[in-house]
Amino acid sequence: MARVVVIGAGMGGLSAAARLGALRHEVTVCEQAPVVGGKLGRFERDGFAFDTGPSLLTLPAVYRDTFFKTGAPLEDVLDLVPVDPAFHYRFADGTEVDVPNASRSGVRAALDSALGNGAGGDWEAFLDVAHRIWQATRGPFLESPLERGDLVRLSRRVGDLRTIAPWRSLRGLGRRHLRDPRLRMLLDRYATYTGSDPRRAPAALAVVPYVEQAFGAWYVPGGLRRLGDALHERALATGAAVRTGADVAEVLVEGGRVAGVRLADGERVPADVVVANADASHLYADLLRGPEARRELRRLRRATPSLSGFVLLLALRGRTPGLAHHTVLFPERYDAEFDAVFGGHPADDPTVYVSAPDDPALRPDDEHEAWFVLVNAPRHEPGAGTDWDSPGLADAYADRVLALMAERGLDVRDRVLWREVRTPADLERETRSPGGSIYGTSSNGPRAAFLRPANRSPVPGLFLVGGSAHPGGGLPLVGLSAAIVAELVGKA
C-alpha cells in the first residue's frame, strides 16, 4: 500500500483517486478550489442551473468501468439518457439537419435528405475508415501509456501506420472522402473537441465522430455535473480523503523521487506517489523543480496550445419550439475562424454552439430556459494576443455573439433575463489552466500526440492524469488516463 497525493479534483483526479482507493492505497486529494469537479463545473442563480463544462458523455464504457471496479455499477448511481437528435446543424446557406443518435442508417437518411448528392453514403464510407482508425489506435495508444520510443514502435506496424496516416490532416481526410463542403465542415468541427485546427490536426481524430455515433451521445438528468458529484462520492467511499481549498505550491523531491507536496500555507503532505491532475504546463513550470521539469517544459513549448472558449450562460423567459438539446450554427467561412483563434484574436464570425437541455432541473419552471452558449476563442495572453480582461471586451463580444445568433435564426435578445459571461481569463483563474486552454496542448501537427506529456513523468513516483496528459482531453480520454495511471502505480 502506498501513500498517494492527487493534485486536483477534476474528473481525472477523482477517477484516479477512486481507482487507487479501491486498490487499498492511502489517497489524499488536494484541490485548490472550494469545490471539486475542475472544468466539469456548475453555475446556479435564481432557479436556473448550467453545466459550465461538457454537455454530453460519449464512450460511457470508460466510466462504467471506473464505477464497476470501485464499487456499485454506474447505472445504480446515475441515469444515462440518450440525446436524440444528437445535434441540430444550421449552415450559412440555410440548410438544416438533425443528426440522429447512434443510428448509422438514420444518419445516412438524414444527411441524404438535407444535403443530397449521396452525402449519407459518403459519411457512412468515412465512418468505415474511422472505424479502422479506432481499431488501430484504441488498445495500443488510447488505453495504454505513451512511452518514449512509441513513435518508432508505431512506424514498425506498417498496416496500422497506413490506417492511421499520421501525415494526413483531418481536413485532408475529409476532402478525400466527403464531396459536400457542408459535410466537410461538420467533420472539421470535431477537431475543436481537442482544441485543434482541422487543417493541422491528424486524421486520427476521425475516431471522435466515430465514437460519438457508434456508442452514442448521453446526458445525465440534472446535468453532467452530477457525474462529477457521483465520482467524488465514489472516491470518498473507497477511503480517499478529498481536501478542498488545499492549494499545492510544490511537488517535493527527495533522493531522486517524489516525497509528497507542499501546500501554499506551508503544510507538507508526505507521499510515496503523486498524481498530478493539474495542467502539465502548470506542473512543470510552477510546481516541480529541477532539470526534468525544464526538459518537459521545453517539449510542451514545441506544441501548439489548445484553443479556449468564450461562454454565455443565458437565463431566458419563454420556450423555443422545436429546440434541440444541441444546436450548432456554422459561419460561411470556417477557415477565417481558425485563422483568427489560432492567430490570437477573437473570430468576428465564429461557429456558435448552443446547449439547451430540456431538463426541468435546470430551470425555475416550464416558462423559462437555461442556455449554455459557447464559441471557440483564443487563449488569454495579455501582451502577446488577446487580453480578455480588457475593459469592455467581454461584454462587447457577448453582444456580438447574440447578434450572430439572431442573424442565424436564434434571436433571443428580447428574452434574456440575465446573462453570465465567462472568458478564457476566467477559466484560467478558476482552473489554473494557462491562458484558459481547455485541453492543454492541441493536436495540431503529426507529432502532436507524442509531444503531449506522458502519464509517467521523468521523476520516479510522479504521474499525470487529465486533459493535458496522454491520451488527451474530453471526458472519455480523461477517464482513460486515470485507468492507465492506476495500473502504472501498481507496477511502480
Automatic annotation (TrEMBL):
Residues 11-483 form the Amine oxidase domain. The keyword Mitochondrion does not apply. Pathway: Carotenoid biosynthesis. Keywords: Carotenoid biosynthesis, Oxidoreductase. InterPro entries: Amino_oxidase (IPR002937), Carotenoid/retinoid_OxRdtase (IPR014105), FAD/NAD-bd_sf (IPR036188). It comes from the Bacteria. Belongs to the carotenoid/retinoid oxidoreductase family. This is Phytoene desaturase.
